[in-house]
Amino acid sequence: MAARLRAVRPHLALVTAGGPVAGGVATAVLGGWLPGLVVPVLLLAAGVAYFRSRRFRPRRWPTAGAVLGALSGAYLATTTPWLSPTAVLFGLGGWVVARRARESVLQPYTPELADSPVEVPWQARGARGLELLVSHDRITLSGGRGPFRLVRPMVALSGVGSVEQVMVARRATLPVPGVGELRVTVTPGPAVRITVPPGEWIVPTDHGREIARLVARRKELAGA
161-199 burial, b if ≥16 CB within 10 A, otherwise e? Predict the structure, then answer.
């Protein structure tokens, strides 16, 4: 796992430093407002701080790469009008490079991921945007749309009971226990059932066995 993380460092360095360096060079070459160099310096510092704090959470790398790239491109556009397309180009480039880095860390899934501190996301089948996140000390239901954008049900590994793959016979909308009115739509097929206080989560996924082994191993490592 350490080898995978080392291998993506150049990608993250490019995402973090590429835009700000280009902005600094453009300012110097084109005779821009030199005090404006504080902008690429701040973008560089923000990128370094973000990716350092999220180095074990690759799920959000592409979004961060796109934002940093777009902001760097927007700054370049202020130096000269003909560079205005760089906001889009740098944003797209940042997303592509960071996404490749994310996939290099997370795929293919192997048992060594369980022994690492890397947060592993599992996409729910048939529930667009809903993911089960397994980190080194907790599990979380997270989504980029709907009520899961505002509420992220989270349980410490010490509170997780049994985790097993089950088969769902028909489509159903099930409540998330202990979290107000949240619901998860479960489609026919394999799912993972996770016992949590005060009930259970049922998440549709074809990777129930892998999730069960991952949670069991991380609970063992955490002494939970």
Answer: eebebeebeeeeebebeebeebebebeeebbbbbebeee
Residue with tokens 């009971």: 161
**Is the CB of residue 58 less than 8 Å from the CB of residue 11?**
no
Whether the CB-CB separation of 154 and 139 falls below 8 Å is answered with yes
Q: Residues 119, 157: contact at Cβ < 8 Å? A: no
> pLDDT tens, 86-124?
899 999 999 999 999 999 999 988 888 999 999 999 999
Q: Is 56 in contact with 118 (CB distance < 8 Å)?
A: yes
Sheet strands (E) in 114-196? 120-123, 130-134, 138-143, 154-156, 163-168, 172-175, 183-186, 189-196
Q: Which residues pair with 165 in a beta bridge?
A: 192
- Give the number of other CB atoms < 10 A from CB of residue 150: 8
Contact 197, 178 (CB under 8 A): yes
pLDDT digits (tens, 9 = 90+) for 157-178: 988 999 999 998 888 888 887 6
